Amino acid sequence: MITIRPETKGNTLVIEASNKLTTKDYEEFFIPKLNQFIGQFGKIRVVFYLNDSFDGWELGAMWDDAKMGLKYKNNFERIALVGGPRWMIWITKLSSLFIQAELKVFGSASLEEAISWTKQ
Predict the structure, then answer these.
(1) What pLDDT does residue 26 have?
(2) Which domain holds residue 9?
(3) Domain total for the chain?
């Protein structure tokens, strides 16, 4: 499940991911929200907070995530990844090769720090 957190303001989108992300989460919620933000601001900043219940992606959702990253690779200024399993660090580092944005990983207890860094 993907939800928009109340810290979202201006061109900074703060999302929280929980449980297993599905194709429906991406296609009916996240991608339209991303299109809205990019349409409004052009370049955006994103905080991805993977809470303690986060359990990865369904295969279709993983594909949607990869397509989205390539489509919008020039529309991100900063991306913060907060929490999640250790393997997410490697995926994030791999993703940074394809996205033109500053990217930083934070521990699960550092959500406020990640939001501050992203908004700088």
Answers:
(1) 81
(2) 2-119
(3) 1
Digit-coded pLDDT (tens) for 62-93: 655 666 666 777 899 999 999 987 766 666 66
Phi, psi of 48 (to 5 degrees): -105, 110
User: Residue 35's domain is classified under what CATH number?
Assistant: 3.30.750.24
**pTM of this prediction?**
0.86
Distance of CA 67 to the CA centre of its chain: 13
Nearest alpha carbon to residue 78 among 62, 61, 63, 92: 92
Query: How many alpha carbons lie under 13 Å from residue 114 in its C-beta half-sphere?
Result: 26
Strands of the sheet with 44-50, listed across from one edge: 2-4, 12-17, 44-50, 76-83, 102-106
Phi, psi (degrees; rounded to nearest 5) at 97: -70, -20
